[in-house]
């Protein structure tokens, strides 16, 4: 009789993984998860892991938040699904849009819903292409982003993403231009101050606009803090340096707040933390605290007016997803915003962010192989380095960050390797004791791996 297959074997036989290093899965097997409690998840073998990545940045209220579960249940009872086409939409959609504009940095605005962050970025690009054509500027199609930016995986958002792995798809599409990553520690030149570096970033933008022609550019899109690029906060004064240049050339600044939005940096928005007001905001991930797939484009007043005028003219915006503005997603998002902003979650991030920074700084100081600690709020990265003084990385073939992350997993801590960095972005509910558990397991893993490779 055939042996019953394990969960690991069944997973590997029938399911595909996204963004997974296959050799390490073949060696280590698949972790199949069944449930969660607070910031912890449990696998089919009953092992518990502290998920210091909040799932994929999004499970900010943990894995069993009662209020969110109840909000979902109640809405499924009331009205389990509807669309937002043909002049109809659910009451929850109406309420969420009001709420999003209310909590946005905009005095007024309009919201369009998607199922993901990628689709929200593609939607933003289509909106700009649509309104530029309607305004008689069909050539204004180019999109400026930065190297290491992560904006998603659909065709436009993958083209916006500044990562080399998209070459396997023949992307980016033409007209998607990647500027230098504003990472002073890595990109700064010898002797260059951070202020001089920022000026150089602004000059590069100015030169790029001059070279390409301002009238061919539809937008500049940026995460306030780059997330999947390795938690890279902007260099000092970056947005203050670039925004006036964009404004002078009439190029909208779009903030991709999919990670930073709703509390990750300690404020409602990353743009608040970095003190700028964009022309539109892209939201997803935290929007529903990970309890429903949903994204949103939140347009500020000027883009709302221009898009509305363009739509009036053509009498339709021919775009939308079947589940755009799904009532259950909207009900969950309304609750998630309330939970994060009014039940002390964002407050917890603000209160404990200095403690998180300090704990990680001490780990860095006790190690000889951490080159940089960077981050803000509840998003941090430690960059492993063979020689921190000269910023010499480890040989890539050593897969140092993957080994650290795998060792953490063995110790019951989930964290993410990104390049040579280890990323920690725990749920906003993480307590002091849980933070100490994270520090302790992380340091044990770092010591073990550095002893093997350094
Ligand atoms: C995750 C992410 C996206 C893409 O969101 P998906 O829901 O995975 O499509 C876009 N932008 C940023 C900044 C992200 O972190």
TrEMBL record:
<keyword id="KW-0808">Transferase</keyword>
<keyword id="KW-0663">Pyridoxal phosphate</keyword>
<dbReference type="InterPro" id="IPR015421">
    <property type="entry name" value="PyrdxlP-dep_Trfase_major"/>
</dbReference>
<dbReference type="GO" id="GO:0004015">
    <property type="term" value="F:adenosylmethionine-8-amino-7-oxononanoate transaminase activity"/>
</dbReference>
<protein>
    <submittedName>
        <fullName>Aspartate aminotransferase family protein</fullName>
    </submittedName>
</protein>
<dbReference type="GO" id="GO:0030170">
    <property type="term" value="F:pyridoxal phosphate binding"/>
</dbReference>
<keyword id="KW-0032">Aminotransferase</keyword>
<dbReference type="GO" id="GO:0009102">
    <property type="term" value="P:biotin biosynthetic process"/>
</dbReference>
<dbReference type="InterPro" id="IPR015422">
    <property type="entry name" value="PyrdxlP-dep_Trfase_small"/>
</dbReference>
<dbReference type="InterPro" id="IPR049704">
    <property type="entry name" value="Aminotrans_3_PPA_site"/>
</dbReference>
<dbReference type="Pfam" id="PF00202">
    <property type="entry name" value="Aminotran_3"/>
</dbReference>
<dbReference type="InterPro" id="IPR015424">
    <property type="entry name" value="PyrdxlP-dep_Trfase"/>
</dbReference>
<dbReference type="GO" id="GO:0009448">
    <property type="term" value="P:gamma-aminobutyric acid metabolic process"/>
</dbReference>
<comment type="similarity">
    <text>Belongs to the class-III pyridoxal-phosphate-dependent aminotransferase family.</text>
</comment>
<dbReference type="InterPro" id="IPR005814">
    <property type="entry name" value="Aminotrans_3"/>
</dbReference>
């Amino acid at each position: 009789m055939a042996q019953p297959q394990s969960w690991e074997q069944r997973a590997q036989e029938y399911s595909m993984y996204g963004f997974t290093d296959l050799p390490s899965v073949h060696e280590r097997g698949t972790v199949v998860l069944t449930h969660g409690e607070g910031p912890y998840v449990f696998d089919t073998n009953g092992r518990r892991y502290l998920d210091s990545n909040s799932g994929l940045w999004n499970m900010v209220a943990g894995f069993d938040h009662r209020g969110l579960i109840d909000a979902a249940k109640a809405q499924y009872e009331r009205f389990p699904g509807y669309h937002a086409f043909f002049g109809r939409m659910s009451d929850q959609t109406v309420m969420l849009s009001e709420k999003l504009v209310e909590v946005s940095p905009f005095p007024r605005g309009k919201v369009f819903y998607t199922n993901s962050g990628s689709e929200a970025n593609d939607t933003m690009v289509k909106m700009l292409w649509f309104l530029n054509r309607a305004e008689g500027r069909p050539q204004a199609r180019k999109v400026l982003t930065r190297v290491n930016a992560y904006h998603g995986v659909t065709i436009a958002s993958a083209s916006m993403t500044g990562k080399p792995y998209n070459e396997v798809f023949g992307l980016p599409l033409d007209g998607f231009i990647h500027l230098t990553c504003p990472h002073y520690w890595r990109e700064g030149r010898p002797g260059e101050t951070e202020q001089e570096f920022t000026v150089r970033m602004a000059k590069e933008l100015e030169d790029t606009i001059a070279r390409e022609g301002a009238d061919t550019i539809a937008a500049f899109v940026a995460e306030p803090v780059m997330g999947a690029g390795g938690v890279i906060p902007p260099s000092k004064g970056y947005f203050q340096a670039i925004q006036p240049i964009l404004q002078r050339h009439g190029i909208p600044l779009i903030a991709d707040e999919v990670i930073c939005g709703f509390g990750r940096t300690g404020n409602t928005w990353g743009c608040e933390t970095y003190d700028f007001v964009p022309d539109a905001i892209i939201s997803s991930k935290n929007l529903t605290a990970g309890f429903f797939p949903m994204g949103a484009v939140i347009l500020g007043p000027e883009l709302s007016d221009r898009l509305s005028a363009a739509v009036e003219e053509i009498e339709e915006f021919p775009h939308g997803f079947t589940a755009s503005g799904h009532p259950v997603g909207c009900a969950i998002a309304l609750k998630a915003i309330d939970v994060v902003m009014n039940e002390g979650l964002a407050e917890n991030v603000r209160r404990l962010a200095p403690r998180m920074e300090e704990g990680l700084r001490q780990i860095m100081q006790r190690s000889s192989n951490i080159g940089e600690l960077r981050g803000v709020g509840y998003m941090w990265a430690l960059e492993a380095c063979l020689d921190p003084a000269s910023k010499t990385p480890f040989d890539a073939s050593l897969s140092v960050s993957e080994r650290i992350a795998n060792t953490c997993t063995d110790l019951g801590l989930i964290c993410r390797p990104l390049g040579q960095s280890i990323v920690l972005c725990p749920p906003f509910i993480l307590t002091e004791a849980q933070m100490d558990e994270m520090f302790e397991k992380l340091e044990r893993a770092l010591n073990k791996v550095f002893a093997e490779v350094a």
